[in-house]
């Protein structure tokens, strides 16, 4: 690789997986890598190590030497960055890049999906969140975590099927193949499932989402009911943004491609494919939305759930 010039790194650190891409000044892709999740909940040091590991993997593919990273401008999108104090803590950590900009995973996705223009997205992965940008202000809806929110996520889908599987273990329902397969993950022992649930996170529950999707696509009515519920949740969020005048919409995340065919035809026709928002941030192509920057003559908009006044559905 021509290591003498400036390079740009994007890291998409979702709750399910992380992806890195390095480009040169002309936009030519030099190296890419993907791995497991890179989220704020794992702690500062582990997150930093995760970021550097995926950076080095992409750099190795590009042919960059270790010292070349000092000429690299990085845009890093992280799941959970909007949690109280997370962004400030990450900005205090030292990185070897020429510059680094942290951004929430949802905002990076929204910037990429609509090239910085006004638009909205629903992220449906292990967790879920919806983000809109209008007049330089960010709107966030839902995304409070799968135990109380995230109805269109893989984790919620997994939670629902495990819950129903345990009901069938008590002989309170028919033990169809989908539920039997879910129980099989716990050797058909409800007590083992309970012990697992004490430590399980969103990504653990999301492991069950593919089998639900598989059976739903094969015509299983129980799986279909779960998937329809998730599709309705995505549709409700997209409709919310449509009602507020957004005409650019995207659905993305590890679960989005699977669930999109279950959306209504008119919503499917409106969806756009995303770009790399974190990479655009690394290149400094647009200013990031500011907290509380909405105009007074518009409905109040806030940039995260930590603001005193919150956007509510």
- What percent of residues are in strands? 15-25%
Question: How can the largest sheet be summarized?
Answer: 5 strands, mixed
Give the neighbour order of strands across the main sheet.
Answer: 3-2-1-4-5
Mean pLDDT rating:
82
Oligomeric assembly = single chain
Order of helices and strands: EEEHEHEHEEEHHHHHHEHHH
How is the topology of this model organized?
Elements (H helix, E strand, L loop, with lengths): L6 E7 L4 E7 L4 E7 L8 H19 L9 E7 L7 H6 L7 E6 H9 L5 E6 L3 E7 L2 E5 L12 H16 L7 H8 L5 H10 L2 H5 L2 H9 L3 H23 L5 E4 L3 H4 L5 H6 L6 H6 L31
Parallel strand pairs: 1-4, 4-5, 6-9
Antiparallel strand pairs: 1-2, 2-3, 6-7, 7-8
Helix pairs in contact: 4-5, 4-9, 8-9
Describe the structure in brief.
With 313 residues, the chain is of the alpha/beta class.
Structure description:
With 313 residues, the protein is of the alpha/beta class. The protein has 12 helices and 9 strands. It has helices spanning 44-62, 86-91, 105-113, 154-169, 177-184, 190-199, 202-206, 209-217, 221-243, 256-259, 265-270, 277-282; strands spanning 7-13, 18-24, 29-35, 72-78, 99-104, 119-124, 128-134, 137-141, 249-252. The strands form 2 sheets. Strands 3-2-1-4-5 form a 5-stranded mixed sheet. Strands 8-7-6-9 form a 4-stranded mixed sheet, sandwiched between helices. A hairpin with a 3-residue loop joins β6 (119-124) and β7 (128-134). α4 crosses α5, α4 (154-169) packs antiparallel against α9 and α8 crosses α9 (221-243). It is globular and about 65 Å long.
